[in-house]
Amino acid sequence: MEQTLEFDSELIRRYDTSGPRYTSYPTAVQFTEAFTEADFKRWAVATNAERPKPPLSLYFHIPFCDTVCFYCACNKIITKNRKHAVPYLEHLFREIALQGALFDADRPVQQLHWGGGTPTFISHEQMRDLMRATGEHFRLLDDDSGEYSIEIDPREADAETIGVLRELGFNRISLGVQDFDPTVQKAVNRIQSEAETRAVLEAARAEGFRSTSVDLIYGLPHQSVASFAATLDKVIDMDPARLSVFNYAHLPEMFKTQRQINAGDLPSSEEKLAILGHTIERLGQAGYVFIGMDHFAKPDDELAVAQRNGTLYRNFQGYSTHAECDLVAMGATSISMIGDSYSQNLKDLEAYAARIDAGHLPVFRGVELDADDKLRRAVITQLICHFELEFAAVERDHGIDFRDYFAAELEGMGDFVRDGLIELDAAAIRVLPRGRLLIRNICMQFDRYLRESRGGRYSKVI
């Protein structure tokens, strides 16, 4: 496929509404407590009976951070006391044992990810213990062929840490940067130098990490086109394989730490849009292609290759190259995808620990997908990953007449066609370069829960 992008500021202003990011469909808003531990176990057993058995993707949530970043909307615990990780890890190890007992031992772990919080908050020995416990209950790959990744705060890692992570089998690394401008960093309480960031990236390359990624955020206080351009140039010079450039959503009524940010210091909507426009232009000049949903990659990166080959996928970790995996998520607040179900662990650490102490999995809510959910998930995933949808393929896989089943959705796409966001004919939907930044709007047309006003509160699409 052609991986091009067209930035049209007037069009973006017109379509800049709020909507889901579609890391799942149905989204987490539809999860209910009617889904229980028993349902989770039933789905796990059922996937063992599939032929061939699906491989596994494991996610571990480490919620601790040393300091708070004011913009952050993640589930985290701020503490300088490293001892707080000890009881959490003890319960996590027990959850690993409970989860591992549900899945056949011959199912390989093709993907593994540590997220947070700050995964490198824990000590090197605790990292080794966590990977050792994982290997005792799941079949980890020992030939470096898996996609084993970790989120890194460069302020919480050095060359020795990177060496330990490589020793443990990690081969992909994602670094949080957000912005290098000192004024912006002070306003969001994240003081991080270019030198320490570059040192971690260089250590990762020296240790043989196969992919490096950097996260940036636009829309933070005191940012301007010029200031963010300076950060962007520094990051491009560091030469990561991937870049994620996220839109800051200021929701202080939902996220308490954001109340530390002075709304008057935030860039105007016009300046914010100009920052995005320059970022897209500059990354294109530097040779990056737009994958979708804030993500850019070099043309030879696995994500870019998978998109061109039609095998890109999207889940709770973002874009992925392993659509066939069942996702087993462990730790407080983490979300699993097993078979045709989603489930989430308890968010509160005390409640999470108490459930495990009682010998139970800490699942507290979820959802089972019906035929309509699976159909719409397939449509949304195809559009958000590949920007085109052939009706015949959906009809073959789901036994429907596409134009009849989705008559109302297709009729509602008239504005998208007139504005040049998509091409729509009797056989397919093709998202055009000027519509790719607005892919969430297009996917929202197929979201039954939004159409029935059963959605929740979401971030702006741009």
**Taking all residues together, what is the mean pLDDT?**
94
CATH superfamily of the largest domain: Aldolase class I
End-to-end span in angstroms? 23 Å
Shape: globular
Radius of gyration equals 22 Å
- Indicate how many domains the architecture comprises: 2
Number of strands: 20
Q: What structural class do helix, strand and pairing data support?
A: alpha/beta
The CATH first-level class of the largest domain comes to: Alpha Beta
Proportion in helices: 25-40%
Poorly predicted runs are: none
Query: In what range is the share of β-strand residues?
Result: 15-25%
Largest sheet descriptor? 10 strands, mixed
CATH architecture of the largest domain: Alpha-Beta Barrel
* CATH fold annotation of the largest domain: TIM Barrel
Number of helices: 18
Description:
With 462 residues, the chain is α/β, with parallel strands linked by helices. It has two domains: 117 residues, Orthogonal Bundle (Arc Repressor Mutant, subunit A); 299 residues, Aldolase class I (TIM Barrel). Helices cover 38% and strands 20% of the residues. The protein is built from 18 helices and 20 strands. Strands 1, 4, 5, 6, 7, 8, 9, 10, 11 and 14 form a ten-stranded mixed β-sheet that branches. A three-stranded antiparallel β-sheet has the order 15-16-17. Strands 18-20-19 form a three-stranded antiparallel β-sheet. Helix 5 links the parallel strand 6 and strand 7. One of its GO terms (biological process) is protoporphyrinogen IX biosynthetic process. Keywords: 4Fe-4S, Cytoplasm, Iron, Iron-sulfur, Metal-binding, Oxidoreductase, Porphyrin biosynthesis, S-adenosyl-L-methionine.
